[in-house]
Amino acid sequence: MSEPAAAIDFYFEFSSPYGYIASQVAEDLEARIGRRLRWRPILLGPIFKITGQAPLTNIPLKGDYAKRDFARTARMHGVQYRHPDDFPIGTVAGCRAFYATDERDRRAARALAKALYRAYFVDNRNIGDAATMLRVAAETGLDAAALGLAIDDPGLKARVKGEVDAAIAAGVFGSPFFIADGEPFWGVDRIPMLEDWVRKGGW
Amino acid sequence: MSEPAAAIDFYFEFSSPYGYIASQVAEDLEARIGRRLRWRPILLGPIFKITGQAPLTNIPLKGDYAKRDFARTARMHGVQYRHPDDFPIGTVAGCRAFYATDERDRRAARALAKALYRAYFVDNRNIGDAATMLRVAAETGLDAAALGLAIDDPGLKARVKGEVDAAIAAGVFGSPFFIADGEPFWGVDRIPMLEDWVRKGGW
Fold this sequence. Notes:
203 residues; 54% helix
């Protein structure tokens, strides 16, 4: 077929260590498979209400494993990682800032996402705080004052809620979560499987 | 060092699809890395009471993903898979039969584990039923009558409880779960990471 292949949806939550690691390797993935990722931040809070799940680090036994695994998975991918002092955090402000930016400039939105993730998981800055989030946005060249207004706009808030609802409708329950040609892949450790699936058209 | 490397602990639950898949690829893994796996069936029921987790297929959103993923992960590894009609099941009888056999014949216990898994995940036989489990054991050449008595022995029951308690103490919260040189790896999808870790002595 001569039509370009559809984008692969890449869902992530800004408070998710594995989402952060995925964001750092996502562009290499795009280059390897020749497919564009559509970056879609989401909020795990409303999703966990549906699934009854809790943040990984709060779960007995699994929490200790998770903290060890965040760091070693980052090392495996050559990604810097410092577990944030405040964890997990609410990331609705960052999520809104992403979509407010994405509506006008997809490239700038992606740069914002990467900067927010690095601010949180490398520089230990609490991006759950709206003022801190806006300072990080300004450092990427965005107009923080305009963005501060934009994220309070009711239409934008509804748009973000709609994104989360759409993710839930698509079956998204974790971060990172990829959907390629209708096939779901959960976790940064499933990137090799996603890649093989996309190359072969399933199996 | 001239001492042989310590065995890698391989924990699994007989009702776990990913544990089944791991059991089917475990001997290839041993051959590739030149390390012996110590097979240790466990029971996720008491573990889930501690972690507050539920069987995967009972979790909203995650359950649908899991059912799809069991089958495609099996296909990826070239392993037969038929999702059992009765799922999940209690597997304490199989677990006891394994350890009763393992005390005298490690090789026979491993053959029993593989046969129980195939009976459940290929032939749709409910190995949660003790009589069915003993029939499968007999098909591997074991003395079903003797095994039926052995699994009711209070000493053996205590041994199995001790195995589960030891697994919990070691941080095991899922199936399959590997511990190599003190480092934990959860999931059949983490076998490549385990392999890399063992080859390099960590990173």
